[in-house]
Amino acid sequence: MDKKQIVAIILMPLLAIGILFGASALNPEAQAEFYEGVGKGYYGDIKVRVGVVEDKIHSIEIVEISDTPGFGDSAAQTVAGRIIEAQSTEVDIVSGATLSSRGTIEAVNNALENVEK
């Protein structure tokens, strides 16, 4: 074996490891920790799954909602988007969907209570 082949044999595994770790750094979802919370909506519980990356709210998934399809669930999604954008649960509620909005905020707060500080 010549010197170039030895260098190539040594560098290939190192490059592969670097690529694998680099790819996970580009995907925040891979680094997110998830927390579940529950709040009271108009017709029942609202359950959410909150993804947190480096102490920031990365995602909010509405796991379960009993409120009016097409309205309560839409309001919950809107509020979830506002929370992510503001990085706070102190956001405006959706007009006409007060209980769905407040229930979503309550569920996110409930989930965030489990984040280790």
Automatic annotation (TrEMBL):
InterPro entries on file: FMN-bd (IPR007329)
GO cellular component term, pick one: membrane
UniProt-recorded name of the protein: FMN-binding protein
Pfam families per the UniProt record, alphabetical: FMN_bind (PF04205)
GO molecular function: FMN binding
Location of the FMN-binding domain: 41-115
